[in-house]
Amino acid sequence: VTHSIPACIGSMTINSKQLDKERPVSILAVNKCYVTVQEGTFFDGSGFAALVREGYKVRSDVNITLEFRTTVAHGVLLGVSSAKVDAIGLEIVNGKVLFHVNNGAGRLTATYEPRGTNSLCDGKWHKLQANKSKHRISLIIDGNLVHTDNPYTQSTSADTNDPIYVGGYPANVKQNCLTSKNSFHGCLRNLVLTKGQQAEFFDFSRAFDLRGVFPHSCPGAEH
């Protein structure tokens, strides 16, 4: 077995001596145990998850669904960006959800603005669906639809072949469709990207780079 256990371990003794887990010699990707846990992935606000090392091709159509829970009004949700301008991005800025798309001709944004400033950052689960269909983009949050007109009707494909960054991205990586550098703090679950009839579910424990992300559980309530 070469992978870590997704569990809590406590009160460990060796030769009748209790180990001091408060002062470890070294520590890597170990978080506190929670009194109550929920299914999902916890992002501690310091890092990101990097998926699809070989590169994800957005092209003309993609449908993104996920659920998020946070108490923070800013944070990157997801980004895929080429080194040129073609890209997509999802982020929370000032308690609003923004879905950006650039098919090469210019950035287009669909913005969901909740009625209450903190109503999406209330520590409860919210459902998000972001859809790009050629030059059209739309965003559905908790069943509420927003879409935006696109003046660039001739430009329909976001030509990317790059990793999917979730919850943030490294400082040396360019993201053309994200305005925020803030890493997401909170929980995500059920990330699915669909093209046509082909739905792809992403397991964060299979990320090729994971920093400040705990893939197997979320604290039951924000601390």
Automatic annotation (TrEMBL):
Laminin G domain location: 38-218
One Pfam family recorded for the sequence: Laminin_G_1
Cross-referenced CDD domains: LamG
InterPro entries, sorted: ConA-like_dom_sf, Laminin_G, Neurexin-related_CASP
PANTHER family (alphabetical): LAMININ SUBUNIT ALPHA-1, PIKACHURIN-LIKE PROTEIN
Protein name per the record: LAMA1 protein
Native source organism of the sequence: Crotophaga sulcirostris (Groove-billed ani)
